[in-house]
Write a structure and sequence with these properties.
The protein is mostly beta strands and 98 residues long. It has one domain (10-97). The protein has one helix at residues 21-30; strands at 10-13, 38-40, 52-57, 64-73, 88-97. The chain has a five-stranded mixed sheet with strand order 2-1-3-4-5, covered by helices on one side. The two termini are 16 Å apart. The relative contact order is 0.25.
């Protein structure tokens, strides 16, 4: 598992499964992420380079969290439910069982 920078924001993608939000936050905290840095991902606001993405995976059976690091952010026209996140490039770091 990669070293976590607890000062970086973490954008949490629940894929509409808000019933798993608190469990996911608890799991992320146990792995070194700071609770006050965990942000619900929204289509109209993206993170910055080196911020994290925590994505409940794999739909429709969400059983783990995929941790990714944002490597590039490009300006794009918002599209579909992913919105501005279409312009974000990322690197997979590791997964955590949910």
């Amino acid at each position: 598992m990669s070293e976590i920078d607890s000062e970086k924001d973490v954008y949490l993608f629940t894929h509409g499964q808000m019933n798993l939000r608190e469990k996911a936050i608890s799991v992320l905290e146990s792995k070194g992420f700071s609770k006050d840095k965990i942000i619900d991902a929204m289509p109209d606001k993206v993170g910055k380079i080196d911020d994290y993405m925590a994505m409940l995976w794999m739909p429709p059976n969400l059983d783990h969290i995929k941790i990714q690091k944002i490597t590039k952010v490009e300006d794009v026209e918002p599209e579909g439910v992913t919105g501005l996140w279409n312009g974000v490039s990322k690197e997979d770091l590791f997964t955590i069982p949910l």
